[in-house]
Every structure is written in structure tokens, then in C-alpha cells.
Design goal:
- One of its GO terms (cellular component) is membrane.
- One of its GO terms (molecular function) is xenobiotic transmembrane transporter activity.
- Belongs to the multi antimicrobial extrusion (MATE) (TC 2.A.66.1) family.
- There is one protein chain.
- This protein is mainly α and 80 residues long.
- It has one domain.
- Helices cover 89% and strands 0% of the residues.
- It is built from three helices and no strands.
- α1 runs antiparallel to α2 and α2 packs antiparallel against α3.
Length: 80
């Protein structure tokens, strides 16, 4: 959790030395990427955990593989 916070804060600390405009631009970009990108991927990974746990526990390895491969494919396309 601390590393996630430092990933957003450390560039802003460095940009704050240049100008207020660059600091504001970095803040807006960081906030936008946090809301649109990280939240979607985090939600998809949590959904994968919810689906794969019961499938693996029940011995439904075909469903487990299907869920895993489809999640990898979807996450790849959201990143691109």
C-alpha cells in the first residue's frame, strides 16, 4: 500500500520544484489514470479471484482454466 502511494507522490514531489503548471498536470494525469485504469484492472483481478477460487476448490479445472485465460486476455486488452 505504501509503494502504491509513493508511486503517485514521488513524481509530484520532483515536479513541484519546476512550476505549478507541471505539478497540476501531473496531479490530473495521476488522478485520471488511477480512476480509469487501475480501478478497472483491480476490479477485474478481484473478479478473477472470486470466480477461480470456488472452481479450483470444486475440482472444476476446465472452468478454472477458462476463467484464467479469459481474464488474462481481457486484462491485456485493457492495458493496450
Amino acid at each position: 500500500m505504501v509503494s502504491k502511494y509513493l508511486l503517485r507522490v514521488s513524481p509530484m514531489i520532483m515536479l513541484g520544484n519546476f512550476s505549478q503548471l507541471s505539478l497540476f498536470s501531473a496531479f490530473v494525469a495521476s488522478s485520471l489514470s488511477s480512476v480509469t485504469g487501475y480501478s478497472v484492472l483491480f476490479g477485474m483481478c478481484n473478479a478473477l479471484e472470486t470466480l477461480c477460487g470456488p472452481a479450483y476448490g470444486a475440482g472444476q479445472y476446465q472452468n478454472f482454466g477458462t476463467f484464467t485465460y479469459s481474464a488474462i486476455f481481457d486484462c491485456f486488452w485493457h492495458i493496450v
